[in-house]
Design a protein that fits this description.
By secondary structure, the protein is mostly beta strands. It is built from no helices and eight strands. An eight-stranded antiparallel β-barrel has the order 1-2-3-4-5-6-7-8.
Length: 121
């Protein structure tokens, strides 16, 4: 996910070590009444590998939704000096995020990997 300078990012972390969500919002769009958001989730499975979910989001009612175009990528390092090997696992992911105060809930609608997983700022 490459974000331009107009994006503001908030980092949320789960109690489970190695799982983080970054929610980004284009602040230039706030004045136009548009809701352009993006989520990037990293979930470490070891020191040498992690999964990454990349979701473009729209704001609908009380939640942020990705409807079928989320990307999941597996990332592995062969050794400390190597470039990571990135393998796209799918490009049709769906998810929704609900914000309650400083808590964020992620519902993975494709794999159900983290349904109702709680993240905090």
């Amino acid at each position: 996910m490459v974000l331009e300078r107009c994006w503001r990012t908030i980092l949320y972390s789960a109690k489970k070590a190695g799982v983080k969500v970054r929610i980004a919002h284009c602040h230039k769009c706030e004045n136009k009444g548009e809701g352009i958001f993006h989520a990037l989730i990293t979930w470490s499975s070891s020191a040498a590998s992690y999964a990454e979910w990349d979701y473009p989001l729209i704001f609908v009612e009380d939640r942020l939704i990705c409807d079928g175009n989320g990307i999941k990528t597996g990332v592995e390092y062969e050794n400390a000096e190597s470039e990571p090997k990135r393998t796209v696992e799918y490009t049709d992911g769906s998810a929704e995020f609900t914000l309650e105060g400083n808590r964020l809930f992620w519902n993975d609608l494709k794999e159900h990997r983290a349904d109702d997983m709680l993240f905090r700022k």
